[in-house]
Amino acid sequence: MRLLLDAFCGGGGASMGYSRAGWAVIGVDINPQPDYPFAFIQGDALEFIAAKGKFFDAIHASPPCQASTKLRAYTNKSPELRGQAVNLIPETRAALEATGRPWVIENVSTAAAGLRDPITLCGAMFGLTVYRHRGFESNVRLTAPTHQPHTALCTRNSYLPTPERPFMSIHGRNGHQSKAWVRAAAEAMGVEWMTSINPVCEAIPPAYTEWIGRQLP
Known about the structure:
The protein has seven helices and seven strands, in the order E-H-E-E-H-E-H-H-E-E-E-H-H-H. It is an alpha/beta fold. The longest helix has 11 residues, at 89-99.
């Protein structure tokens, strides 16, 4: 079985998709990930890519969305960087290119993220009840399904899905941290093994990387 590294793996949404596409997966993240469902190594993802990336058949990387959010664990390692906005995508791309392996970088789909010629995936493409647009850059040519029309989202005052508004908006932590919301969000994205707010809010649906994993050589 081919072996894939999931760098910055979080709770394992991307990893689960690659697993369903037939890959054996190992995840690396600087933070503990008690929900992660596969073999896990806690450590600096960029350092791990540089040291071990060439031994994998492919690499997926989801560096924090530093073009649009504040760096957390990485800036906390360095007091002079704490609280600053940092973009790890260029450094991640360079590390991946140095391995000579097929690779994918996932991030938010906005231009500010700095992905090069990404495809955009949306939950509506896969019959999910969450849109959650994400961009995927790769050194392998990737294609995307047809982008389905969007319908009504759950409102801020009614953030759990209803028959009339089945699509959940899952952005950051939203202040909605009830167990019911976490369960509903995890179910909407297909990450039901995740039980806490942070991994759920940071995850991508496994359907995205199952689609991509079937296109990797």
